Each structure stands twice: as structure tokens, then as C-alpha cells.
Amino acid sequence: MVIPIIIHLFNLRRVKRVEFSNTTLLRRIKEESSAKRKPIELLVLFSRIMAISLLVIAFAQPVIKDDSTSASLGTDVLIYLDNSLSLSAQGDNGASNFDEIVNDGSSIADSYPEGASFHFVENAYGNSLTTGFTRESLKELLTEVEQVGVDRDAQELYSRIKGSDFVGDVYLLSDFQGKSDFTSIRKDSVNQYFVKLIQSESLDNVFVDSVFLENSYLSGKFSNLLNVTLRRNYRDNEEVNIKLLIDGQLYGTGEVDFGNQLVANHVFELQGALPGLERIELQIEDPTLQFDNSFYLSINKVDRVRVIEVYDENSPSFLSALFEDNEAFQFDRIDSRFVDNELLSSANFLLINQIQKPSNQLISSVNGLLESGGTVVVIPSAESGEGELSRLGIRANAESQERVKLSSPDFENPLYQGVFEDEDENIEMPEATVSFRVLNSELDYLQFVNGRSYLSKVISDGNLFFFASPFDIKYSSFPSHALFVPVMYKLALGSKVNLSNLYYYTDSETVFFPIDEVNPGSIFQMSSEAGQLTPDQRIDGDRLVLEIPKDLIRAGHYSLMQGSESVGTLSFNIPKSESDLSPLDPAIFSELAELNHVTVMGLEGDGDVKRFLEAKIIGKSLWKYALLGALFFLFVEIILIRYL
To answer: pTM of the predicted model, to two decimals?
Structure first.
């Protein structure tokens, strides 16, 4: 800047002397020209000073930041892009949140200088964290990322990053549904974290919260109730339509009114012996989000109940006629004189059919079965004594043998749900003799009209049931009554928990499936319209344990194949955390932003990543503007010298 001042003060131009006859006039003109030229020369001086000053500033490459921060960009970059289905929600700019974070990933790549090394991870774990990308190859990869039905929590991401020994700048681009635990990230001061918070407009999304059968085991003999619980994010009085499809065919529809609640229930009745129950689909008519409007479930009939009857020579044959040749049960009979401990221990439902004097071996087997969670039903003999019953865990006194009518059942008891079409209190009930009075009854399922117990659950370590009279015709008309079959079936069906779940979620890691028979060397595969999967597997007793590759699984029905034979169906659905679009607590991210190694973007409403990095981390470069200013003042100098 001193150079133009020196030029201005010491004019080095040579002066040529010119003689004139009369200098009076010239002297006057010279004075007028000097007075006029002096301010112009000052303007030229100013232009030169500004041009040189701005040129120096341009070479200095100054930047300007909105806030003073200690964060700076490194040379190693890792970008996590959340491609779960919850990002399908529409953002404030009209585009989906997923499209927004894909653009953010490209903006991050553009913000780093040439030579930076990029690493990438998404929910499907499609590539290794050790793979390096250039700016161009990363941007090309971002265009190929698709949404998947699996999410990763913050702790899982941290473990994966830690396992790869990565050190550098870590970008987390997500809506953070189900990612509220940042404990490990808070403690990891080795890496510098940049968290992009996706905030979209509030959506009143409706989704399936849970589905269950009223009777946990579906038998072809009886109808059952399918209970569906729907949930929404905000209270709204609008009604929602729901459809039930069985094997692709419309079976029923319903209208669910939430009223002023966030949760609403609807019940579908499933008739007995329905075909296609392995492939059930619930459809919700909700335009908010499309990916979670279908919910898949399967009712498999492979889990047979092991029923064993221990009989005596005088035992009636009602029970064997009831359970033999039934697809829901695997039935065996054992003579009380030849007890097989190994066979008894495999029972789910054990019937002690009018044994007068149970052996010590039988009593030991009964106690072991009760301790392991099995169900035992004791039907006394007319000659049974109080001592023999007490050895089985039943405290009972002999009664008057008076024949009394049974009272109507309690229709609210789960045992009778799905049994009666109409709840008629005046139903014709059977009669029985009051042979024994139970003293340690926990719950009565059937009672005499005089209040005595007929069928009761006895207080014990397991499920022990006792009938107060024998099944012989002269003692009871119950075995010939219409109530006999459903009561005995319900007790048997409730004795075994169905290991085959109605449904799983795409983030489920382990699936247990009951298997009756396994061919040696068989490999089980999961088959769907999208293709086949061969998960890690092992046999554990009478069940197949599958380790689900959640990066490959999709929502829908999968046939479980043993070779070319289908042994059942598994149904998978989107996790509820993806459908629940309730707003996140901003305090979580405000606390994160206070950490020196964490920068939260989008917390104050500005979600543009490139603009954020320029304004607060990189700074906005001013050298271009300085160069333009220098050129402008040089142009002003030329104009002043040339035309003024």
C-alpha cells in the first residue's frame, strides 16, 4: 500500500520545457488544471491502495464463521446414513427425509478437500467400514443406497465403529427413532461427531401395536378370537378401516374408532378349520405412511400337545376316545402298573384316570412334571382315599355323595372363550355327585349349585387340576354333556405354550420354531417371493433355532423349507419404533451439543448440512470477493486516468 503513495508523492515523469511568447495566459490555465486534477489524483491513489489491499487479502484467503467453535474438519471421514423405513416420512421441503439425508451425504463429501478418505455405513451393513472411498466414488455409492426394514441403535453403531479402529470425523445422519442412548458416544472423545437431526412435521401415523390369539393355541375344533391393537401418534377422532386377509383372500373388515385415545382394539373371530391360516395379513387404510400399512402373521399347526393317560383296569374309556386320532394331540396310554418315567416326563398334559392307589413311581413322575411346568389332571376313583390324594398334592375330604347339578360356567373365564356362541345363563348343565370337597383350591372352573368345587385348579408348584367326582356314569353325567369336549380340549391345549410366534420383527435376531421330526443332515431355508435365505441354525431338543440375518430380512411371509417340503411359515414385520413418529425430546440433543467433540446440526431448525458446515465449521471463504474488489478498483483507476 506504500508503493502507490510513493508514486503519488514523487512524480518521476520528465518535464519538457516549451517556450512561449506570452506566459500570462498559460500560467492561468495551469493553475486551473492543477486544481481540477488534484482530487482525481487522490481518487486514483485511493483506487490503487484498495486494489493492492484487496489483492493481498485475496491471497490471505480469509473466512467468516457465524459462531466461534473449536471443531475443525479432518482428513478421515465416516458417514452413517440411516436408510430405515421411518425416513419415508415427508420433510418440511416436500421431499422425503431419506432423499434429504442422501443429499446431505453428498454435501459432506463436497465440503472436504481433495485427498480426504471417506468411509460409509448404512443399516444393511452392505460394505466394510475399512473400505475407503474418494469423494466421487462415495457420491456414486450414495445414489445406489435403498431403504431397508432394519434399524441400528446408537450403541450398535458405536461398537461397529470402535471395532474398525476408525479415528476421525463421524457423521450420523438419522431421524434417531429408537436411538436415544448416546452413552458411548458421549464418552468417545477420540472421534469428532457431527449429528444431523432430521426434524419433520408432526404425522398422525396409525400402525399395528400387537396381535394375539385369545386362546394361545388354535385348534381346528373351535373358533378363536384374533385381538388386534392399533396405535397412533396423536389423538384424533377419525376412524380407521382395517382388513383381514387369509391366504390373499379378504376374510373380514372392521372400523376402528380411537375416540380421544392413542390406542384402540379390534377383534376378528376366526372360525375353526380355516385353511390358509399360515398366511394372514392385516391391512390398515392410513395414507400417512405406506410402508407400515400391512402387518403379517402366521398360525402354524405343527406344535402338537403330548397327552398321556395313566389308567387302571376299572378306568372308563372316555378320555382315550376324546384324544385319539386328533391332529392337535399326540396321545399315549400307560397302565398304572407299568409306569414309564421317560415317557411321562415328555408329557405336556397328564391325565390320572381314576387310579385307586398311585404308586410311588407315579407320584414322583407327577411331581417332576409339575415342577417342569406341565399340566396334570386328576380324576379320582370312587375308592380313592384322602391319603392317596394328599400324596398327589390334593387336600380333600370325602363328601356326602349327594348328586347335585352344576351351576352355569363363568363366561368371563378364558377357558370358555370361543366355546359358546351365546352367553346363556340358563344353559342346561350336567349333574355329578359331591364325592370330595377340595380344601386347597386356587380357582374354580366349574362349581356345584351349592357352591362346592367340581373342577378346580389346586394350589401347587405347577398346573394341577382336580375333578370332585369320578367319570363313571353313575357318579357324573359330565362326560356325556356337550361341555365335556371343549373343557378337556381347552385344558389340554393350554398346557403347552406354542413356541411358534404369530409374528417376528425384521430386527429379531433369534427365532425358535418347533419341529416334530428332523431328517439327518437337513438344511432349513426361508423362502419368499424375493428369494431364499439360509440362516445359521441348530437343533435344540424339539425346536429349531434360527439366527436371522436382519440385514437381509424383509417384511412379509417366509416359508420354512426342509429340502423341498414346507414345515411352517414365519412372518416378519417392520419394528414398531419405525412406525412411531412421536417427536423426539430436543433436550437430548441440546445436552449432546454441549460436548466439545459433538456438533449437532439442525437443532435450531437449519437443516442444510453444507450451509451449516460453511457457516460454523469451515467458514465462508472471502477470497473470491476480495479478488473481485481488487479488479473493480483497478477498473476504476483506468477510468479515472483515461477519461477524467
So the answer is: 0.64
